[in-house]
């Protein structure tokens, strides 16, 4: 890897350990609406300026309606601006794009540091590796680093390290995530439901890739759950995931796996694999044959599997039900 991901992850976990666990209050309704349009026929012309207008310490839902267009800007939601709902016209018509690479903590096109954030119908793209750069480097489309964050019908497009699903509880519903190497990575506690993971290196020769890269502490509840998803791609083969330390956790269930999935399925960067939890249950498709998988994958059934597939895995207190219907 071009960037030593384990270093940044360990730094992240240290920072998290030194901060208070998020006790995020629910946001109040009804939402206030502000608009964004590049034509100027709106409250703001850029997404960032609309976010900047939200008062510090905000506790009421703010609906930011984004008109169709390609917004070439880097967008940051700071920690003191929770309760924001960004809504576009769909990934095919509303996109936020930037061209940057390097440290994943600071170079993402879309960077979330606040809790209670929702995005719907928006594409987030890092275009660095999709042009003739001559190299494939860490280039993050979105970094998600707080609690109670949801994405509906969104797209995340990149090549290496597309989605930095860093920390907190997250829900991805009906989303499309595209990349080539570790394109969903981090230490978050997240559920991906009815979503598509598409492997594509985007440039260069056909090479093998990695869908996920997971790292967690032994006592954390974190991990990635993929439920009713479509895992596919083109231009090579990819493993479902790799563990960056001794405790990675990824569950793939009731999903369709194409033949893009390599027979061994998984790998670990740590020599001790006994506490890694890589699980495949109830899947279909040519890539779902587990006969040649690495021997240390886990099998879960009944309540052991249900604890991860149930929404309570990421939502015990009902924060998703508090999201406005927009």
Automatic annotation (TrEMBL):
**What keywords tag this UniProt record?**
Aspartyl esterase, Cell wall, Glycoprotein, Hydrolase, Secreted, Signal
The biological pathway it contributes to is: Glycan metabolism; pectin degradation; 2-dehydro-3-deoxy-D-gluconate from pectin: step 1/5
Domain Pectinesterase catalytic, by residue range, is: 34-299
GO biological process annotation, one example? pectin catabolic process
Q: Mind telling me which InterPro entries this protein's record contains?
A: Pectin_lyas_fold, Pectin_lyase_fold/virulence, Pectinesterase_cat
The residue range of the signal peptide is 1-24
- Catalysed reactions, as listed in the record: [(1->4)-alpha-D-galacturonosyl methyl ester](n) + n H2O = [(1->4)-alpha-D-galacturonosyl](n) + n methanol + n H(+)
Listed EC numbers: 3.1.1.11
Please name the GO terms that the record assigns under molecular function: pectinesterase activity
Task: Identify the main location.
Answer: secreted
Q: What subcellular compartments does it reside in?
A: Secreted, Cell wall
Q: Please report which protein family the annotation says this sequence is part of.
A: Belongs to the pectinesterase family.
Q: Which PANTHER family would you find in this protein's record? A: ACYL-COA THIOESTER HYDROLASE YBHC-RELATED (PTHR31321), PECTINESTERASE (PTHR31321:SF134)
Q: What is the role of the protein in this entry?
A: Acts in the modification of cell walls via demethylesterification of cell wall pectin.
* Record's protein name: pectinesterase
